[in-house]
Each structure stands twice: as C-alpha cells, then as structure tokens.
Amino acid sequence: MTWVAIVVAGVGCYLLKLAGLSVPARVLERPVVARVADLIPVALLAALVAIQVFTTGQALVLDARALALSAAVALLALRAPFLVVVFGSAAVAALVRLI
Amino acid sequence: MSPEADAPLEDRRAIVRDSLGVGLATGTYAISFGAVSVAAGLSVPQTCALSLLMFTGASQFALVGVIASGGAPLSGALTALLLGTRNTLYGLRLAPLLAWTGRRRLGAAHLLIDESTAMAVTRRTTEGARVGFLTTGASIFVLWNVFTLLGAIGGTAIGDPRTYGLDAAVGAAFLALLWPRLQQRHTVLVALLAAAVALGMVPVTAAGIPVLVAGGVVLLVGLFPRSAVDR
C-alpha cells in the first residue's frame, strides 16, 4: 500500500508541476491572476515558516526554533548569504538546546 | 522580459553562484528527510523512490508525516498532492519567463520546486531565469537524492536531527526565500496574515492543510485592487 501511495503521489506531483508550465501564457495577462500568482508563494512560504517554527504535530509551541528564527531575521537584515542564514540559525537552535 | 536584453556575463556568474548556494543548503537537508522517513516506517528504497519521483520536499515530508502519525498511506498521498498544487501556481508564473516547449518542458517540470522558482522568478531575462532555474533545480536534485540515501542509511545512527538544529534550519531556509518578496507593504501584510491563519488552523486540521488554507487567503486578498490593500 505504501508503494501505491508513493507512485500515485509521485506521478501526481509531477503532473501538477507540468500542468502549471503548460497553461497558455494569456491566462497570466489577466490582472487578478497575475496578482494572485505573485502572492501565492508569499502566503505559502510564510505559512511554511510559521508551521516549521511554531508547531509540533498539532500543538503550537515556543522553543529554540523561535530563537533560531530571530537569528535568521537578524542575519537577513544584515544581508548575510543564504548559507550563513540557514546554518547560522541551525547553530543557534543547537546551542540553545545545549544550554 | 524587459527590453534590457541579455544578462551580462558577470550577472550569469552571480546567478550560478547564488543558485549553487541555494542548491547546497537545500539539498543537504534531505538528510533529515531520509532519517525521518525511515523512522516513520518506510524502507530505504521507498524513501529514495520518494525523492527521485516526487521531488518536492514539503510533499515528501507531508507523506511520511501522515504515515508516522498513523495515517493511511493513501491519505498521506492526498496531503502530498494538495501541497503539490503550489508547484502548479509556480509553473503558471514561470511558464512565460522560461518559455520552454516540448521535451525541454517535460524535463524542466520535474525540477519545478520552491527554490528553483525563487531563483528564477526575479530575473529580468529568459536567459537569466533559465540559468537560475536549471542550476538550482539540478544541483538540488542531485544533492537531495544523495543526502536522502545517506539520511535513510544513517537513520537512527546520527541520532536526533534536532541536536544539530536541523529542524530550525528548515524554517530559516523558507524565511530566506520569502525575504526578498517582502519589499512592499501589502506583501508583508499577506505574509503575516497567511502565517496567522496557518497557525490558527494547526490545532484543528490534519498536517498539510493549514498551509493550503493560508494559500487560500491569497485568493481573497488578490481579488482586491492593490491600492485598496496598500492604504
């Protein structure tokens, strides 16, 4: 059953990607579509940040990850490169948990 | 896209360098996916098949997450597919910029993920967008699969990925991808609203759903003219 789920979801995810690339360009010329398409990644990425940092399972939690995110914000404000932001933030979480 | 034409050589180099950086950072955290997946009860071949075939991190984590919490594999598959719909929207956004057709489009589709989109969507030219997309997508694909295998084999041997702060690194990576988009007031508002909605949904819905509901918020906001949201 697990193999069926893997193949179905894997092929399905590929087709979802292909569908996006295959839609006629004129669909995007409608201002509402363009605006929504621009904002979709903003909303999804923001939601993913929130879920990754402030939840465990179905519980809302405040732990070392929140401090790590603050560190990421500071590093981004200082225009640090992506790798420094990501691993710097991981290091903060690891240090906080050591203490 | 703009009449400013071709990206100069150093632009191209900068795009490749930045894209490889994103590829390295993203690809290596597949080690946590490999470990989590094996811990959820999937075999090493099943774990690797997910990275090869599905190749979209959030969906992969969602599928093994549902299985780990005792859900049916097929409901895990549904969650993964729902999460995968955002790649359709990325594709919609990128299609005119990348301007690929035929077999190239069939190949490019597999590399269409958060990071390859982020590294392509801000480019002014088709050339720059293609370089960013391919360099990011291909380097992540290679590293993602190698580190999935390493994570799956290492499994419990490396211990809890939390010890290394890897769980926090994922949030930081998403934030770093979001950051350049937060230059206008209305995008900041949308981001805060989406995060709040997602957190509000967490206690009452299954894993994967809060992110989709947050995406739905955009449909509502997008229907209003920008000026109405800005003021």
Automatic annotation (TrEMBL), chain A:
Annotated keywords: Membrane, Transmembrane, Transmembrane helix
TM segment ranges: 6-27, 39-61, 67-96
The protein, known as: Branched-chain amino acid transport protein (AzlD)
Organism, scientific name: Nocardioides psychrotolerans
TrEMBL record, chain B:
Keywords from the UniProt entry: Cell membrane, Membrane, Transmembrane, Transmembrane helix, Transport
Pfam families found in the cross-reference section: AzlC
Example GO biological process: L-valine transmembrane transport
Chief location: membrane
One Gene Ontology term, aspect cellular component: plasma membrane
Topology class, membrane: Multi-pass membrane protein
InterPro entries associated with the record: Brnchd-chn_aa_trnsp_permease
Cellular compartment(s): Cell membrane
Chain segments annotated as transmembrane: 20-41, 61-83, 133-158, 164-182, 189-222
PANTHER family: INNER MEMBRANE PROTEIN YGAZ
Family assignment from sequence similarity: Belongs to the AzlC family.
Protein name: Predicted branched-chain amino acid permease (Azaleucine resistance)
